[in-house]
């Protein structure tokens, strides 16, 4: 993580023609208010939102189970001067992030209304549909650098398929987003129709941390502190990686590309080493797997970089990057959140120009076909 809060760009750091243009795979836009969705929501669901609001898998409305370290988990300097929450003002986002860092493409990741955690699946689908349309109208059409994702709740598979098909016909979305905290582990067959459509449409499956599956976010139960809950993001992604691989999703859908977003990558080597070790001992239990888990991981999965685990010695980070694979990493800033990674300082270890270009640009361009 880079401490850049309230630190403006210096003149000599402003964009130059020779600077590497970046693809930022994790940019968070926000609703200024839920009224932004009115033009995209049927009257029935507008009224439902006003009268009943969200019905989530946790007993918390308009907040999360743990107090955040900063309001709306945002940088102090990311609150727009025009009012509204961080990420809700396109002009301010352009001035503070897209222009100075020369972002060639930014992939939108919407977290408003706990979009994946709605218990009322019909209401959740209506909100997801509205937000998918809002992404285009309020962001992508106003700044072509910003790319929208098809957000679907995978626990209503039929509703998700319908929304994927609707958005695919529009042809402006670059991935399908699902939650890592659904009712069941993501490798389960009930979710496979979504993966089948993603593969058929050649759209990567994006899995961004967050949401609530109704279960404790750690294997040991409910945490006491926000710092514990935040730590659990990596555990959640590791568990879902194991579920997808061992239940055979990459074997069944060999052309499917899966991108884990905001889960970091420091945990990958030990998780994969353990999967490989267990596979050798228990392979008779999973005859549907034709190869070692590590081979599936290295061919079908990509990982965005933020939050970067930062060991004391730079060479350890370098070794970690090499093990995961330069080709597997996609740069992400997490703008405008408090643990934003500044692209100028994100990697505290030497990288060659060719390696930087891969992580900051060409890997994402290959995955998303920009």
TrEMBL record:
Acyltransferase keyword on record: no
A Pfam family recorded for this sequence: Amidohydro_2
Keyword Lyase: yes
GO MF annotation list: carboxy-lyase activity; hydrolase activity
Domain of life of the organism encoding this protein: Bacteria
UniProt keywords, alphabetically: Lyase
A GO CC term attached to the entry: cytoplasm
Database matches in InterPro entries: ACMSD (IPR032465), Amidohydro-rel (IPR006680), Metal_Hydrolase (IPR032466)
Transmembrane intervals: none
Boundaries of every Amidohydrolase-related domain copy: 23-370
Gene Ontology biological-process annotations: secondary metabolic process
This protein's name: Amidohydrolase
Lineage of source species: Bacteria, Pseudomonadati, Pseudomonadota, Alphaproteobacteria, Hyphomicrobiales
């Amino acid at each position: 993580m880079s401490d850049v809060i309230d630190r403006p760009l210096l003149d000599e750091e402003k964009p130059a023609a020779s600077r590497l243009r970046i693809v930022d795979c994790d940019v968070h836009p926000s609703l200024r208010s839920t009224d932004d969705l009115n033009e995209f929501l049927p009257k029935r669901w507008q009224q439902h939102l006003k009268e009943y609001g969200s019905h989530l898998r946790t007993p918390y409305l308009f907040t999360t189970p743990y107090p955040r370290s900063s309001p709306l988990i945002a940088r102090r300097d990311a609150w727009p001067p025009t009012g509204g929450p961080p990420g809700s003002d396109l002009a301010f986002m352009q001035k503070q992030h897209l222009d100075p860092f020369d972002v060639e493409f930014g992939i939108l990741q919407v977290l408003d209304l706990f979009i994946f955690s709605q218990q009322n699946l019909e209401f959740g689908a209506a909100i997801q549909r509205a937000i998918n349309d809002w992404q285009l109208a309020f962001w992508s059409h106003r700044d072509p650098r910003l790319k929208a994702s098809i957000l679907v709740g995978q626990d209503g598979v039929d509703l998700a398929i319908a929304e994927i098909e609707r958005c695919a016909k529009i042809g402006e979305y670059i991935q399908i987003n699902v939650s890592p905290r659904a009712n069941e582990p993501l490798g389960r067959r009930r979710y496979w129709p979504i993966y089948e459509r993603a593969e058929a449409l050649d759209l990567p499956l994006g899995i961004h941390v967050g949401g609530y599956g109704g279960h404790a976010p750690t294997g040991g139960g409910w945490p006491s502190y926000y710092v514990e809950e935040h730590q659990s993001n990596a555990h959640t992604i590791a568990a879902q990686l194991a579920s997808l691989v061992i239940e055979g999703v990459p074997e069944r859908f060999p052309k499917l590309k899966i991108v884990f977003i905001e889960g970091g990558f420091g945990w990958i080597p030990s998780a994969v080493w353990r999967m490989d070790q267990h596979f050798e001992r228990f392979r008779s239990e999973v005859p549907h797997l034709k190869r070692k888990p590590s081979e599936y991981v290295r061919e079908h999965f990509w990982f965005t970089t933020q939050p970067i685990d930062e060991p004391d010695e730079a060479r350890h980070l370098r070794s970690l990057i090499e093990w995961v694979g330069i080709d597997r990493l996609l740069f992400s800033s997490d703008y405008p959140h408090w643990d934003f990674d500044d692209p100028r300082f994100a990697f505290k270890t030497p990288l060659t120009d060719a390696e930087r270009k891969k992580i900051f640009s060409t890997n994402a361009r290959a995955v998303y076909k920009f």
